[in-house]
Write a structure and sequence with these properties.
This protein is α/β, with parallel strands linked by helices and 642 residues long. It is built from 20 helices and 25 strands. The strands form seven sheets. It has a six-stranded parallel β-sheet with strand order 3-2-1-12-13-7, sandwiched between helices. Strands 19-18-17-20-23 form a five-stranded antiparallel β-sheet, with no helix packed on it. Helix 13 packs antiparallel against helix 17, helix 14 packs antiparallel against helix 15 and helix 16 runs antiparallel to helix 17. The longest helix has 31 residues. It binds 5'-O-[(L-methionyl)-sulphamoyl]adenosine. 5'-O-[(L-methionyl)-sulphamoyl]adenosine binds next to strand 1, helix 1, helix 7 and strand 12.
């Protein structure tokens, strides 16, 4: 029997459109869900929308719609967004769904039967933004810390949940289960809150003030407080109490939230569960905020970054990768589009993208796409293999601790190992001198790529599946398992290895000039500036050009030059050439050997920074930077362009 795994996101309020804060939490849950599939678990992933309460009524009024029309529309936006971010949720719950409303009423009745609900007159400080009462102590300068507004004084009779009864039990539970709330800073925060007497929770609103909610089963004149309603989604979606999914998945429930809703999840929810006779969840995983200009992103501040705009500009997987690589789970992070571009260019285009492309090009060039078997391995081959296999364990350790950025760093160390291995082994030299050894080297590169592709799948699923397809693997995407990755040499390609078109187009850092707005301002980036149209030349003139294919076999720095690299290019029959190319700002030298290029072969040699250049590489420049022109499939070095 496979292990079970259940993960949830908060159900988002429908009073605002989704932004990258919502996208981040949901991508974290998606990454965890996919990681547990990779580990062989049977998983269930839930997200949804929170649709009752004052805030929603106010937002609907603002939009000139009824609450029902309004919630249908905004909930629809969330439901449309998730597939576009490749979110693999099994269910989407709305608190207006009939089955959820019924479950809330059932649980309220249970809690009431236990005498954990009483009726009482109450006067308190109420923040309409948070939809809850505040104690004097919780206010900052007399204002709600989240909404910077003085709360209203409200006096009304309401129903209360005897939360105080469960205070001692909760302290004990948190103390005995150190990973119940994690990371530790948030566990400590909850424990510190619990060191003061816990007040009972007001769980109703009179219908005279609010009608948009779930009617209390024991008093028709009241609706349920939104938090008491919303938290129950986590069990109603599983078909509590009888549903098979509830029996299977509730014992392993894990929630992902940000620190803004720590108190309802860390305190109200476990007490509610205890009172209703339901076991507590297993883990509450709490992350920090994405900030912009040092402030929390929020609609009222107007600094919202919309996920789809970034995805449109940079692509989905770079966006997912950036969020997961940049934020240390639990801490706040500053969002910056420049940082996203840098990660895309350095980690994805340069390191991973080039590795895949140069590796597959070599399998084509030397073996016509058929993966060779490995012969005897030497020390370097063993070192690469050991690092790659050990990576699986290291990665798993980090993922289980929610240290996503560390898991990715570990994968990228191995990516850099393979790039170095290729440079040291120099397959283009082995091809001439040691064809048997070449087979072993290519085989080791393939095996390491198979592991890398499997491990990056939870983060960048579409790109990982593309790589797995190109490698000819049978177990792609959610069919791939960690246990199989551990077995070196397990999978033989099911079809010839495919050629690798660029996985991650580079973005030009210089695009973001004064007038190129960031995605946060909602304008699309300018079109890349193209050069002036050149004047026409005759066909005879064109024929004078000698354009040929070359393969870069070495790339070196030129002292004191910011832009130039010295390249050694294999020209086939002809002698190797030295070419000085202005590509240093766009390509890392380690990633160039093995890349096929197009060369103007009959230019007069020129000396650049003291080095004689015997030809010129062709490249295209656009807003994405500089792109070397390379044949769509491996061509013979020296081949003439016709
Ligand atoms: N409806 C409640 C949750 C009920 S769960 C039973 C709610 N909704 S919300 O729309 O306000 O979503 C809050 C959640 O959105 C945060 O906990 C977090 O997951 C995500 N984020 C919203 N803004 C965020 C940032 N600026 N940064 C990171 N995550 C953020 O609260």
């Amino acid at each position: 029997m496979s292990e079970k795994f259940y993960i949830t996101t908060p159900i988002y309020y429908v009073n605002a459109e989704p932004h990258i804060g919502h996208a981040y939490t949901t991508i974290v849950a998606d990454v965890l869900n996919r990681f547990h599939k990779l580990a062989g678990s049977n998983t269930f992933f839930l997200t949804g929308t929170d649709e009752h309460g004052d805030k929603i009524v106010a937002a609907a009024e603002n939009a000139g719609q009824t609450p029902k029309e309004y919630t249908d529309r905004i909930s629809g936006m969330f439901q449309d967004l998730w597939p576009r971010l490749n979110i693999s949720n099994n269910a989407f719950i709305r608190t207006t769904d009939a089955y959820h409303q019924e479950t809330v009423q059932n649980i309220l009745s249970l809690v009431k039967e236990k005498d954990d609900i009483y009726f009482s007159e109450y006067e308190g400080l109420y923040c309409f933004g948070c939809e809850r009462f505040y104690t004097e102590k919780e206010l900052v300068d007399g204002k709600c810390p989240d909404h910077q507004k003085e709360p209203d004084i409200i006096k009304e009779a309401n129903y209360f949940f005897r939360m105080s009864r469960y205070q001692e039990w909760l302290i004990e539970h948190i103390t005995e289960n150190p990973s119940f709330i994690r990371p530790e800073r948030y566990r400590n925060e909850v424990l510190s809150f619990l060191s003061e007497p816990l007040e009972d929770l007001c769980i109703s609103r009179p219908k005279s003030r609010l009608k948009w909610g779930i009617t209390l089963p024991f008093d028709e004149d009241f609706v349920t407080y939104v938090w008491f309603d919303a938290l129950i989604n986590y069990v109603s979606a599983l078909g509590y109490p009888e549903g098979a999914a509830f029996q299977d998945f509730w014992p392993v429930a894990q929630h992902v939230i940000a620190k803004d809703i720590l108190k309802p999840h860390g305190i109200y929810w476990p007490c509610m569960l205890k009172s209703a006779g339901i076991e507590p969840y297993q883990h509450l995983n709490v992350h920090g905020y994405w900030n912009i200009n040092a402030g929390k992103m929020s609609k009222s501040v107007g600094n919202v970054v919309e996920p789809l705009e970034l995805v449109d500009i940079y692509g989905l997987d770079p966006f997912r990768y950036f969020l997961m690589r940049e934020m240390a789970f639990g801490l706040d992070s500053e969002f910056s589009e420049d940082a996203l571009v840098q990660r895309l260019n350095a980690d994805l285009a340069n390191d991973l993208g080039n590795l895949v492309s140069r590796s597959l090009t070599m399998v084509h060039k030397y073996f016509e796409g058929a993966l060779p078997s490995a012969g005897p391995s030497n020390e370097e081959d063993e070192a690469l293999k050991n690092n790659a296999v050990l990576l699986i364990e290291i990665y798993q350790g980090h993922m289980n601790q929610l240290a996503f950025h560390k898991a990715l760093m570990a994968v990228w160390e191995v990516i850099s190992d393979v790039n170095k291995y290729i440079d040291q082994m120099a397959p283009w030299v082995l091809a001439k001198s040691e064809p048997e050894r070449l087979k072993t080297v290519i085989n080791h590169i393939f095996e390491t790529l198979r592991i890398v592709a499997g491990l990056v799948w939870p983060f960048i699923p579409a790109s990982a599946e593309k790589i797995q397809e190109q490698l000819g693997l049978t177990h792609k995407g959610d069919q791939c398992r960690l246990v199989d990755l551990r077995t070196w040499g397990l999978e033989k390609p099911a079809h010839p290895i495919l050629k690798a078109p660029g996985l991650f187009p580079r973005i030009d850092l210089k695009r973001k000039e004064k007038d190129a707005p960031p995605a946060a301002t909602k304008k699309k980036p300018r079109k890349a500036k193209t050069d002036e149209k050149p004047s026409a030349i005759s066909f005879k003139d064109f024929q004078k050009l000698d354009l040929r294919i070359g393969v870069i076999i070495a790339a070196e720095e030129i002292p004191d030059s910011k832009k130039l690299l010295k390249l050694t290019v294999d020209m086939g029959e002809e002698r190797e050439r030295t070419v000085v190319a202005g590509i240093k700002e766009h390509y890392r030298k380690e990633t160039l050997p093995g890349v096929q290029v197009l060369l103007v072969a009959n230019l007069e040699p020129v000396k650049l920074m003291g080095v004689e250049s015997q030809g010129m590489l062709l490249a295209a420049g656009d807003k994405g930077g500089l792109h070397l022109i390379t044949p769509d499939s491996a061509a013979m070095p020296g081949a003439r362009v016709k």
